């Protein structure tokens, strides 16, 4: 079974059109009226009406998916600001991440996922699943996966452009606190998230002790995806790369995952085991690499395509790179539509899709040349 890429690209382009239309702030009745007109005309003049109906149904369905998914994301963010901004509140939340940063004042940042929120002067706790970042001058004695009660939090509604960035990162608000009024309610004895977090930071600290500052800054940025430590050294390296016009080399992308996987495949060739076992080992190693690093959008894109590419042979299906890129793009847009308007998403998927299409066409031409040569 071979995936035909046009059948997957059409839903993706329809979803993109819906997202673009939702953000254009136009009346949706106009495009729907035009779409109905063209559908009616096409059905009237088409010989194969069944296929035409299916095609237009798919286009209309995914267009509306894009419209409503984008609309719901915007409305949810606006509701959050109307309900919580400029109001003092307390929350019961779980600590998801703790990180230090190279900043003059706020040297620590914690990420929490709220379970309940109570606004000051109100008696009831409301269920609220929000992701909030809190920047601190002094870090309290907390660990990842701790369930905590935090009081006296307050944030202001951000600007429109920064609000879009927060929406992209799936963050409700950024809060800056000098002293956090925090009480630990529960600390689980066993936690996979805490184990992975500690392993990742221990690995980073161990490498930092064994490497000079500048090489470590480059290694941390390129291969681990952590650009927030040693900002001074990172800036010096960036200036050098910017001078030569090769600053994009420092951006962690799918290329670094491919280099890692090529090295793993080279080592696995020396081990006499079954093909399927090797593929499962590669998937396991790449997953460990993902968990022990700080992934970017392009890295997640490459990792998702790699997983689909490896699972296709295991399920006796032929893989097509154009189709895989379209599937991953569609999934990421349905999960987080606002990403479409950011340059990292556009470059990551635009360039990958262009290269995939170019490679596909080159392969077709090469195949035709071989057939002509064999006939001669």
Mind sketching the topology for me?
Layout: H1 5-23, H2 29-45, H3 49-84, E1 89-100, E2 108-119, E3 126-127, E4 131-136, E5 147-153, H4 160-168, E6 173-177, E7 181-186, H5 192-210, H6 213-222, H7 231-243, H8 254-268, H9 275-291, H10 297-314, H11 321-335, H12 343-375
Helix pairs in contact: 1-3, 1-11, 2-3, 6-7, 8-9, 8-10, 9-10, 10-11, 11-12
- Share in β-strands: 5-15%
Cα-to-Cα separation, first versus last residue: 31 Å
The count of strands amounts to: 7
Along the chain, the helix and strand elements come as HHHEEEEEHEEHHHHHHHH
Mean pLDDT score, rounded?
Answer: 81
Major sheet details? 7 strands, mixed
Any idea what the radius of gyration is? Answer: 25 Å
- The tally of domains stands at 3
Structural class: alpha+beta
Q: Which key phrases capture this entry?
A:
3 domains, seven-stranded mixed β-sheet, 7 strands, 376 residues, 12 helices
Q: Overview of this structure, please?
A:
The chain is α+β, with helices and mostly antiparallel strands and 376 residues long. It folds into three domains: 77 residues; 105 residues, Beta Barrel (OB fold (Dihydrolipoamide Acetyltransferase, E2P)); 172 residues, no CATH class. The chain has twelve helices and seven strands. Strands 1, 2, 3, 4, 5, 6 and 7 form a seven-stranded mixed beta sheet that branches. It is globular and about 85 Å long.
């Amino acid at each position: 079974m071979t995936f035909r890429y046009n059948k997957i690209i059409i839903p993706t382009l329809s979803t993109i059109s819906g997202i673009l239309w939702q953000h254009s702030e136009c009346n949706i009745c106009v495009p729907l009226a035009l779409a109905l007109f063209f559908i009616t005309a096409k059905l009237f003049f088409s010989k194969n009406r069944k296929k035409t109906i299916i095609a237009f149904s798919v286009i209309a369905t995914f267009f509306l998916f894009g419209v409503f998914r984008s609309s719901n994301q915007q409305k949810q963010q606006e509701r959050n600001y109307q309900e919580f901004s400029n109001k003092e509140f307390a929350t019961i939340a779980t600590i998801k991440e703790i990180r230090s940063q190279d900043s003059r004042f706020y040297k620590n940042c914690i990420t929490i996922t709220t379970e309940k929120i109570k606004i000051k002067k109100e008696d009831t706790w409301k269920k609220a699943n929000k992701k909030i970042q809190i920047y601190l001058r002094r870090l309290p004695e907390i660990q990842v996966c701790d369930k905590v009660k935090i009081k006296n939090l307050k944030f202001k509604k951000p600007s429109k452009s920064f609000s879009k960035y927060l929406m992209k990162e799936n963050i409700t608000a950024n809060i800056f606190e000098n002293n956090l009024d925090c009480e630990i309610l529960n600390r689980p004895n066993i936690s996979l998230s805490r184990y992975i977090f500690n392993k990742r930071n221990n690995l980073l600290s161990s490498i930092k002790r064994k490497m000079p500052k500048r090489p470590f800054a480059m290694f941390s940025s390129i291969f681990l995806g952590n650009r927030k430590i040693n900002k001074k050294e990172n800036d010096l390296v960036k200036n050098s790369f910017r001078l030569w016009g090769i600053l994009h080399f420092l951006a962690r992308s799918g290329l670094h995952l491919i280099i890692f996987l090529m090295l793993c495949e080279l080592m696995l060739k020396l081990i006499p085991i079954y093909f399927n076992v090797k593929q499962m080992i590669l998937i396991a190693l790449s997953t460990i690499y993902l968990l022990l690093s700080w992934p970017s959008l392009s890295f997640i894109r490459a990792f998702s395509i790699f997983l689909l590419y490896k699972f296709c042979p295991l399920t006796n299906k032929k893989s097509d790179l154009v189709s895989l890129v379209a599937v991953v793009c569609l999934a990421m847009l349905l999960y987080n539509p606002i990403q479409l308007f950011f340059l990292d998403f556009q470059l990551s998927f635009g360039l990958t899709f262009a290269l995939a299409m170019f490679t596909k066409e080159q392969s077709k031409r090469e195949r035709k040349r071989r057939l002509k040569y064999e006939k001669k």
